[in-house]
Each structure stands twice: as C-alpha cells, then as structure tokens.
Amino acid sequence: MQQLLSSVVFSKFGVTHLRFLLENTADTLQTLELVNCKMEDSELSALLPALSQCSQLTTVNFCDKDFSSAVLKKLLQSVANLSNLTVEFYPPPLECYDPLEVFAQLCPELLDIPLAKRQPKTNSLCYRHLP
C-alpha cells in the first residue's frame, strides 16, 4: 500500500488522523511520501511511535520539511529498525541552512544512524537553498 499526501497543512488536517492511518496500515504500508505538507517538529514527534511500527515500509520521503536536528535524529532512530526500508529521503535540519559548513558536518552523523542498523539502497539528506 502506498500513501501520498500532498499539500496538507497538518495544523488544519490534524496529525491525529495521519497517526491513526499509520497505526491502521502499519502491517501493509510500503511507501510514505509527505509531499508539500507543512509539518512542525511537534507534529512529527507525535507520529514517530506509529511510524516506527510500519514494518513493511520500503520508501519514505520527508524531503521538503523543516525539522530541527533533535527531531530529525529521533525520526532516523525511529525508522532505523525498519529492515525493509531501502529508499529514504530526509530534509537537512534547520540548523544546517546557515552556514553550509554545518550541513557538511551534521550530515554524516545523521546518516550514520540508519547505517548502524541496516544498509539502505538510497539514504539522502536533501539540501535545498532557502532564500
């Protein structure tokens, strides 16, 4: 089962609904792409327990989100034990946008979290330039 959510503002939609969806599809969900969805640290944190139970996930995409390094670490730790996960896209932490040297320093540390548990085929931090 694939779930693609596009252009959702979670403060209006309610992260509770997405958590419910994740909990009820945890045994079958294979792809989760949150595309153009505005999500804050607190909303992602609320999803992590349900997300960590999605044992059939093969692909996740969180690329266009703005998360702190602390919450991004928690996300990576939550999915590190999902053995079927092979394609992963994560945003760099907010702290990495200024200066670029911070991005280069933090990226290897963050990417090492899932690598300690498994060998994903694609594991990327998607750097984007903010105006």
TrEMBL record:
InterPro entries: LRR_dom_sf (IPR032675), LRRC14/PRAME (IPR050694)
Domain of life (superkingdom): Eukaryota
Gene Ontology annotations for the cellular component aspect, listed alphabetically: cytoplasm
Signal peptide range in chain numbering: none
Keyword list, A-Z: Leucine-rich repeat, Repeat
Stored PANTHER family: PRAME FAMILY MEMBER 12, SIMILAR TO PREFERENTIALLY EXPRESSED ANTIGEN IN MELANOMA-LIKE 3
Protein name: PRAME family member 7
Organism (species): Cricetulus griseus (Chinese hamster)
